Design the sequence.
C-alpha cells in the first residue's frame, strides 16, 4: 500500500491549481475528450492511492483526503459515494446525505449514490421523499432486496401496515434467504399484536442469524404475547448472553419471570436493566409487576409511580395507569383506583375489555351501584364482540371473589344482578 504521506504530498496547492485549470478548460471546451479523460484518470489514480487495499472503516486521514479529491474534482461521484458510505456507517446521515446529493448532481442515475441518498432520507425522517427515490433505484436495480426492505420499513413507521407487508414480501420474493425482511415482518406483526405470525417470521429470521440479539428479543416478545413464558425466557436469556448490556432483553425478562412466578429472578432482571439504564421506565414497571404478583401492592405502586416519573410514551402510560388502578384497588384505595383506571380508559381509543370490567368492580366497591351497572353493561357489550370468552370469565371470577371477601350481597332485583344473570352469571 502506498504511504499516505506520498499521497498528501501529491495533493499540494500546485497540483490543485493544475486540476482547477483543467476543469476550467473543460468547461470552456466541453468537447475536449482528452482533457476529460485526463481528469478522470487523475481522480481515479488519486482515489486508488488513497484507498490502496484498505478494507477497514476509513480513518480520519483517509476521509480528509477523500474530501480533498471530492472538492478538487467538483463532487467526484466515486469520492462522494465513498464518503457517503463512510458517514452512513458512522450514523451521521445528515453529512452522508450531503455527500450523496453532491455525487448525484454529477451522476443522477448512479444507483449506488441513489441508494445511499434514499437511505439517508429515510434515516433523517424524510420518508415521503425517500420512498420515491428507492422506487427510482428499483427501476435501475430491481433485484436488490434491501431496497424493498427499506421501503417496507418506511411504510411501517408511517403506520401503513398492509403496504409495508407487500414490500417485505417483495424483498423475500427476490431473495428467500434475506433474513432482515423476515425480521421486519416479525416486527410488523408485533405492531399489530399478531403474536403467532410474529413468532413465525422471527423463527425464520433466526435460521439465518441465530446470534442476532434483536431476533432473540423479538422471539421473546412473541412468546410472551402467546403466554408461552418458558419459551420466552429461553430466547430472552440467549439475548442477554449474546449481549450482556442488552437492556431491552432484561426488561422483558423481568416480565416473563414474573409471569412464571419466579419473582426473585424477575426483580433481579429488572434491577439489572436499571443498572444498565437508570431511566428505564419499563424495568421499574416490571419490578412493580413482580411485586403485584407477590401481593405486595404497596411496593408495586411505588415502582409504578417511579416509572411514570420517567415520562414513558403513550403506550407505557396506558400500561402503568392500568396497573396502578388495579394495585390501588387491591390496596383498598378505591378513589385512586378509579382515577387511574379512568385515565387508562382515556389513554387509548380502543382500551382492552378487562379495563372496563375493572372499572365496574371499582365502582361497585365504592358502592356506586348505578355507575357500576353501566360500566358492567358496557364491558359485557364489548366482551360479546370478541371471540375470547376467557376475559369475561376472569372478570366474573374476580367479581365473585370480591363479593365473597367483602361479604357483599347483590339484591336479586337489582339492575346489576339482572344484567349478570341475563348473561349467564349467577352470583
Sequence:
Amino acid at each position: 500500500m502506498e504511504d499516505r504521506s506520498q499521497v498528501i504530498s501529491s495533493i499540494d496547492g500546485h497540483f490543485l491549481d493544475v486540476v482547477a485549470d483543467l476543469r476550467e478548460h473543460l468547461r470552456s471546451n466541453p468537447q475536449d475528450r482528452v482533457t476529460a479523460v485526463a481528469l478522470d484518470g487523475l481522480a481515479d489514480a488519486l482515489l486508488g492511492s488513497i484507498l490502496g487495499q484498505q478494507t477497514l472503516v476509513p480513518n480520519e486521514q483517509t476521509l480528509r483526503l477523500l474530501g480533498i479529491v471530492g472538492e478538487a474534482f467538483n463532487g467526484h461521484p466515486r469520492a462522494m459515494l465513498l464518503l457517503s458510505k463512510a458517514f452512513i456507517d458512522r450514523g451521521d446521515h445528515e453529512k452522508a446525505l450531503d455527500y450523496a446529493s453532491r455525487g448525484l448532481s454529477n451522476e443522477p442515475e448512479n444507483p449506488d449514490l441513489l441508494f445511499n441518498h434514499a437511505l439517508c432520507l429515510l434515516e433523517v425522517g424524510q420518508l415521503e421523499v425517500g420512498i420515491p427515490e428507492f422506487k427510482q433505484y428499483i427501476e435501475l436495480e430491481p433485484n436488490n432486496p434491501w431496497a424493498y426492505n427499506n421501503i417496507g420499513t418506511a411504510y411501517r413507521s408511517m403506520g401503513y401496515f398492509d403496504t409495508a407487508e407487500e414490500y417485505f414480501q417483495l424483498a423475500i420474493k427476490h431473495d428467500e434467504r434475506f433474513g432482515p425482511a423476515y425480521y421486519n415482518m416479525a416486527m410488523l406483526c408485533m405492531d399489530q399484536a399478531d403474536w403467532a405470525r410474529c413468532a413465525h417470521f422471527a423463527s425464520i429470521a433466526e435460521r439465518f442469524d441465530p446470534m442476532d440479539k434483536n431476533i432473540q428479543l423479538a422471539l421473546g416478545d412473541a412468546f410472551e404475547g402467546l403466554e408461552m413464558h418458558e419459551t420466552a425466557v429461553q430466547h430472552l436469556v440467549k439475548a442477554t448472553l449474546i449481549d450482556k448490556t442488552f437492556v431491552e432483553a432484561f426488561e422483558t425478562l423481568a416480565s416473563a419471570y414474573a409471569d412464571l412466578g419466579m419473582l426473585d429472578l424477575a426483580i433481579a432482571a429488572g434491577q439489572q436493566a436499571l443498572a444498565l439504564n437508570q431511566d428505564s421506565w419499563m424495568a421499574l414497571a416490571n419490578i412493580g409487576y413482580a411485586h403485584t404478583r407477590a401481593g405486595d401492592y404497596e411496593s408495586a405502586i411505588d415502582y409504578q409511580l417511579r416509572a411514570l416519573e420517567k415520562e414513558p410514551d403513550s403506550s407505557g402510560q396506558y400500561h402503568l395507569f392500568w396497573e396502578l388502578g388495579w394495585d390501588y384497588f387491591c390496596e383498598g384505595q378505591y378513589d385512586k383506583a378509579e382515577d387511574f383506571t379512568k385515565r387508562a380508559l382515556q389513554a387509548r381509543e380502543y382500551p382492552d375489555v378487562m379495563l372496563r370490567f375493572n372499572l365496574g368492580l371499582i365502582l361497585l366497591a365504592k358502592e356506586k351501584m348505578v355507575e357500576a351497572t353501566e360500566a358492567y353493561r358496557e364491558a359485557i357489550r364489548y366482551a360479546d364482540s370478541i371471540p375470547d370468552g376467557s376475559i369475561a370469565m376472569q372478570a366474573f371470577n374476580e367479581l365473585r371473589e370480591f363479593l365473597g371477601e367483602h361479604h357483599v350481597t347483590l339484591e336479586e332485583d337489582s339492575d346489576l344482578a339482572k344484567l349478570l344473570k341475563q348473561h349467564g352469571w349467577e352470583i
